[in-house]
Amino acid sequence: MAETPYKLVLLRHGQSDWNEKNLFTGWVDVPLTAKGREEAARGGELLAAEGLLPDVLHTSVLKRAITTANLALESADRQWIPVKRDWRLNERHYGALQGKDKAQIRDEFGEEQFMVWRRSYDTPPPALDDSSEFSQAGDPRYAGLGEGIPRTECLQDVVTRLLPYWETEIVPDLKAGKTVLVAAHGNSLRALVKHLDGISDEDIAGVNIPTGIPLYYELDEHLKPVTANGRYLDPEAAAAGAAAVAAQGSAQGPAQ
Ligand SMILES: O=C(O)[C@@H](CO)OP(=O)(O)O
């Protein structure tokens, strides 16, 4: 077993097409915007400047996380490291909200319902019908899930599917002394941060993860953060980015 602290870097993908358009995205496999690609490359520069060079990469199976990781590793000159991809790192499945405009949903259903669907711990949006153009039923990358493929998820569902992956795939890499990069999504990373920092079901509603800025955790032998909430490698940009995510769908909210 390697010496502690274990080194874990979490990276939310850079701005995607649908972040820019302010649409609920979930499992829809949208690409990065030009800004998102720049954010990703800069994320890698921040890692290199800090001397935090990943030894292994874990990503979701969605291209916005995969491309972000590729661009970040290119700027950190670490393109050669081994990679594991798994659907359990995917964004939360947003059910029938996938493809819908956030501001329109807020106007149609009201602020309270909008926030319940967006940030409550245990209330999923209505399920997405398999016939929808935004459904993933029938997508070959999820063939192994069979009928178990999600049609909607709340954050609790994400915690439930993510933690076994954390325990069996990520923790062994950390314990082997590897610097681990996890490139994933706003809500799958909120699920992981909730677990690491022991954040309550209520308080996690107020946690938002900005795009493209590495969040660095040092973990002790019990896999508890040495510093609560970790450390963003660019704290100012992270605070602004998190505020922009929080404001999405509000009257003043900039798309980000
Ligand atoms: O649409 C989504 O999939 C997520 C992340 O972009 O949105 P939200 O921050 O509203 O959970």
Count of DSSP strands: 6
Unreliable sequence segments: none
Q: Into which percent range does the helicity of residues fall?
A: 25-40%
Number of helices: 8
Ligand kinds: 2-phosphoglyceric acid
Order of SSEs, N→C?
A: EHHEHEHHHEHEEH
Radius of gyration: 17 Å
Please state the average pLDDT score: 96
Give me the secondary-structure category.
alpha/beta
Strand content: 5-15%
Biggest sheet features? 6 strands, mixed
Shape: globular
Order of neighbouring strands in the sheet with most strands: 3-2-4-1-5-6
C-alpha termini separation: 41 Å
Family: Belongs to the phosphoglycerate mutase family. BPG-dependent PGAM subfamily.
Active site: 13, 91
EC number: 5.4.2.11
InterPro entries: His_Pase_superF_clade-1, His_PPase_superfam, PG/BPGM_mutase_AS, Phosphogly_mut1
